[in-house]
Amino acid sequence: MLRLTDIKLPLDHDEQALELAILSKLNISKSELLSFDLFKRGYDARNNRNIQLIYTLDVEVEKQEELLAQFSRDPHVRVTPDMRYKFVAQAPTDLTHRPVVVGLGPCGLFAALILAQMGFKPIILERGKAVRERTKDTFGFWRKQELNPESNVQFGEGGAGTFSDGKLYSQVKDRKHYGRKVLHEFVVAGAPEEIMYVSKPHIGTFKLVNMVEKMREQIIALGGEFRFSTRVEKLDLEADNKNHKIKGLYLSGGDYISCKQVILAIGHSARDTFTALYEQGVYIEAKPFSIGFRIEHEQSMIDHSRFGDNIGNPILGAADYKLVHHCKNGRTVYSFCMCPGGTVVAAASEPGRVVTNGMSQYSRHERNANSAIVVGVTPEEDYPGHPLAGIELQRSLEALAFTVGGENYHAPAQLIGDFLTGQPSAEIGVVKPSYTPGITLTDLSKVVPDYVTHAIREAIPAFDRQIKGFAKQDGLLTGVETRTSSPICIKRGADYQSVNVHGLYPAGEGAGYAGGIWSAGIDGIRVAEAVALAIAGDAS
Ligand code: FAD
Fold this sequence. Notes:
Blueprint: E1 2-10, H1 17-26, E2 33-44, E3 52-61, H2 64-70, E4 77-79, E5 100-102, H3 106-117, E6 123-125, H4 131-144, H5 178-188, H6 205-221, E7 225-227, E8 232-240, E9 243-251, E10 256-258, E11 262-264, H7 271-279, E12 284-286, E13 289-298, H8 299-307, E14 324-326, E15 332-346, E16 356-360, E17 368-377, H9 379-382, H10 389-405, E18 411-415, H11 416-421, E19 439-441, H12 450-464, E20 476-481, E21 488-490, E22 501-502, E23 504-506, H13 517-539
Parallel strand pairs: 5-6, 5-11, 6-7, 9-22, 11-23, 18-19
Antiparallel strand pairs: 1-3, 1-4, 2-3, 8-9, 9-10, 12-21, 13-17, 13-20, 14-15, 15-16, 15-17, 18-20
The protein binds flavin-adenine dinucleotide.
């Protein structure tokens, strides 16, 4: 098959146009084109009066070799790569030590699935509850301000992205096409087929809940075992030359599990576990992350700015955006985790703290658009001296937001116009806050360091030059956004094991090796393969 990339057609093209575009591109007759499949469809809306759809197509033709030679200088005509997933090992029949996966976010879920599919019968430990019960706790917190520190937006089956927009893309390098495996397994578990071919797929909250359950059923059918409400508290280590090696895990409730291979996929909010690991000598470094606010506008304003008269076109859906501004003070401000037609959510996992994030349903039909507007921070400049100092910075900002919000989990908020001019807000405008439990209008400069306030004050007017109305008085900022990525990296070597604990495989976002659902799933596959090869190697 040949893969044709960058085939551009107008948004309103008719059904025949794709076939005609292929014939014209390859300069062949209809009879020479045997079949074609849609691989990817994106769009270019930079000129909203002439929005173009951009296709990647796999085509079966007569005389493929001749065409390849003819187009050898054209990077948009190539042989279709083989992207099918191939298992790297099979579990030995006399499997003596089952691998353990800690954490059931997308990283742990995919690690467990791949291990199960190769016959390794993983044991999965998750501190939170199964997804249905967890959903009740999470929505309970949003409605009644009762936080369960073990069952919330961050913790529980499905991990941090379960109540999210379910965006499934990132800029990670994926040379082995593991991302296709992630998408394929999601479709098997009930995700819409379109995630295989749209360039920026998303699933939305409620679909994810069902999918996670289906994937659990598959893993159990393959011999995997799940233990919910089971928190890993400490590693059992033994000396291994100058380093350590895993012997087992101490669990909440006083249980113990003996094991040789542990995939540690605990996400970016497992602060207590990070501390325990650090105290046991697991090598950890501080890493950069970002802090700031959630911004909300009316979705119709964003749609109008991005799509003009094409608003409502079903191919385009609700508009998103991605913005970056380099400030005079050397900081970079950018939009992150944009949720079209969604809501701002309370994402705390510790009592007495306020953290924002965003989610949407698959339909993205809510009134507001939201995204994080955040400023990059680094250990060198902003939290030097200790590998866990970034966590303390996050905690102090979240605690301050809790206090300023009124100590009832209401989040501090301010109208954009007032934030830009430095006045506390007194009244909500056109944009109604979507955050529950609720907001407290205030002066947001009180809850973040000055450099964050200055940088965001400079960035928002710059963003307004790209999206007209972005800096409008009535838009809303809610804070604080601190869990953009992990503030630490649990260093691993080329064999995916901790650099000083043999048998410990730090993985996913919490360990600093992923950012987002899709890349966490990809990292889960990578690490599962490393574990499978290690066990198969030991057995041979
Ligand atoms: P996590 O998903 O954080 O999973 C870690 C799991 O480990 C948790 O279930 C936790 O309970 C468990 N755990 C922690 N400590 C222990 C322990 N000691 N013992 C046992 N279990 C433990 N990303 C996107 O790509 N698209 C989006 O649209 C998106 N929206 C988001 C919306 C919200 C509200 C949030 C909070 C995040 C969103 N993200 C989104 C980010 C995304 O969820 C994360 O990048 C992703 O979940 C990271 O996957 P992970 O498996 O590495 O960790």
